[in-house]
Write a structure and sequence with these properties.
The protein has about 200 residues and is α/β, with parallel strands linked by helices. It has a single domain, classed as HUPs (Rossmann fold, 3-Layer(aba) Sandwich), CATH 3.40.50.620. The protein has eight helices and six strands. α2 runs antiparallel to α8 and α3 runs parallel beside α5. The longest helix has 13 residues. The chain binds adenosine-5'-triphosphate. The site of adenosine-5'-triphosphate has 18 residues, from α1, β4, α4 and α7.
């Protein structure tokens, strides 16, 4: 029996607001490992220009050297059109039969608020258990009540970091290595990402 977590995101770039709460979630839920799934083109970010997938995935791989139980998985790389979480969940459960796993989908609090707009949330509720990372500035009372009732709210630390804030700091010239791993910062500098 494997206790597995999955956590999707744009990771543009990955930062400690993802990594630290996620490692705490892994411990709280007693998971063996968590698959982090970079999304080539999330449906809710279709209007945004993202950094190419290959860079976002590489930054995630570099970051995970510090977090051995978190793993980069590229299930969504081959998605044609937007990659839906419900499809990714279906692919994972097809590989691992129910008796062999307990599967948790972990999402940030802002994602719980957006979940009514997702593709087929009922399938996700059916196929996984859902755990939510609290996030500064997000009031869980704003979540759809029947969704909130069906998820587990975790006691993970509140980390006030967003990728948007990091991208803006880089444009402004200064970003602290308290926000994201040094290896990722170096990759950003070498490849001149987020400079304009
Ligand atoms: P952006 O600022 O570009 O919108 P982001 O920092 O919110 O990006 P995403 O890659 O879009 O990062 O988020 C992936 C998942 O991580 C989402 O479920 C989101 O809610 C969660 N998440 C991101 N940052 C945090 C944080 N600081 N604390 C808790 N959850 C977070």
């Amino acid at each position: 029996m494997i206790r597995l977590g999955m956590f999707g995101g744009t990771f543009d770039p990955v930062h400690y607001g993802h990594l630290k709460p996620l490692e705490a979630a892994r411990r709280e839920l007693e998971l063996d490992r968590i698959l982090m799934l970079p999304n080539p083109q999330p449906p809710h970010k279709e209007h945004l220009v993202l950094t190419p997938y290959a860079h976002r995935k590489k930054m995630l791989q570099l970051a995970l050297a510090e977090f051995p139980r978190l793993e980069c998985a590229d299930f969504e790389e081959s998605a044609v059109g937007p990659a839906y979480t419900s499809d990714t969940v279906r692919r994972i459960i097809a590989i691992l039969p129910p008796k062999e796993r307990e599967l948790w989908l972990i999402i940030g609090a802002d994602s719980l608020l957006e979940m009514p707009l997702w593709h087929d949330p009922e399938a996700i509720f059916r196929d996984t258990k859902i755990a939510v990372l609290p996030r500064p500035g997000v009031n869980l009372e704003d979540a759809r009540p029947d969704y909130k009732a069906r998820v587990r709210i975790l006691n993970t630390p509140l980390v006030d970091i967003s990728a948007t804030q990091i991208r803006e700091s880089i444009k402004g010239g200064a970003v602290s290595s308290r926000l994201l791993p040094r290896s990722v910062l170096e990759y950003i500098r070498t490849n001149k990402l987020y400079e304009n």
